[in-house]
């Protein structure tokens, strides 16, 4: 059972490190890819404060389709190049958006979102989807989050066969 007491006194970097430890524990103890990425969204949500939406969009037949997530119901499909997620896929680059209201074409699935971090999932030079984090706070994400969430996606790539989900 997950114990929230373990993290309540941790600073942000300790929480991010703990998130990686728990994620590796999950991935090394379960073979099912869908169960794994579902619980990864739960681990992120439990470890990191001030997130209103955390989840995956996976590339299916040329568009992003909603995967496991924590938060309010969200857009089912996002076209490549559209919104923050579609831009992460078309550029292959991490999108750190301090204020989503200043991002042209931002897709507001949840009106509570004010900042966003999107990490593209790239394996063997192919973009396969994104990990999307939304916060109700402006400027919630920093280079620290890029560092640890990139490590998380690298770890996911070691374990997950995205085509099998
Ligand atoms: N804001 C995203 C859409 C997905 S939601 O945040 C869950 C975007 O602009 O691509």
Assign the structural class, choosing from mainly alpha, mainly beta, alpha/beta, alpha+beta, or little secondary structure: alpha+beta
What is the fold-level CATH name, i.e. the topology? Beta-Lactamase
Coarse morphology: globular
Counting DSSP E segments of at least 2 residues, the number of strands comes to: 6
Based on the coordinates given, report the CATH architecture. 2-Layer Sandwich
Major sheet, described briefly? 6 strands, antiparallel
What's the Cα radius of gyration?
15 Å
Question: Can you identify the CATH superfamily?
Answer: GAF domain
**Ends apart, CA distance between termini:** 25 Å
Mean pLDDT across every amino acid position = 96
Low-confidence spans: pLDDT under 50, at least 5 residues?
none
Protein name: GAF domain-containing protein
Organism: Paratissierella segnis
InterPro entries: FRMsr_CS, GAF, GAF-like_dom_sf, Phosphatase_reg/MetRdx
Domain GAF: 52-156
Give a short summary of the structure.
This protein is an alpha+beta fold. The chain contains 4 helices and 6 strands. It has one domain: Beta-Lactamase, CATH 3.30.450.40.
Walk me through the structure.
The protein has a 6-stranded antiparallel beta sheet, with helices on both faces. The protein has a single domain (5-164), classed as Beta-Lactamase. The chain is of the alpha+beta class and 165 residues long. The two termini are 25 Å apart. A hairpin with a 2-residue loop joins β5 (115-123) and β6. Helix content is 36%, strand content 25%. The protein contains 4 helices and 6 strands. The site of methionine sulfoxide (SME) has 15 residues, from α3 and β6. Methionine sulfoxide binds at residues 53, 74-75, 78, 83-86, 106-107, 109, 113, 116, 132, 134.
């Amino acid at each position: 059972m997950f114990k929230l007491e373990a993290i309540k006194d941790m600073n942000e970097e300790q929480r991010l490190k703990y998130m990686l430890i728990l994620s590796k524990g999950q991935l090394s103890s379960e073979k099912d890819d869908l169960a794994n990425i579902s619980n990864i969204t739960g681990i992120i949500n439990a470890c990191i404060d001030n997130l209103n939406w955390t989840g995956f969009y996976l590339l299916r037949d040329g568009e992003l389709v909603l995967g496991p997530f924590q938060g309010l119901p969200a857009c089912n499909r996002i076209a490549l190049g559209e919104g923050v997620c579609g831009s992460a896929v078309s550029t292959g680059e991490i999108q750190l958006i301090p204020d989503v209201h200043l991002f042209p074409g931002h897709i507001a699935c949840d009106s509570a979102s004010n900042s966003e971090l999107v990490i593209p999932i790239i394996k063997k030079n192919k973009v396969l989807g994104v990990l999307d984090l939304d916060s109700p706070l402006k400027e919630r994400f920093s280079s620290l989050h890029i560092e640890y969430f990139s490590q998380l996606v690298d770890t996911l790539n070691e374990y997950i066969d995205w085509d099998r989900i």
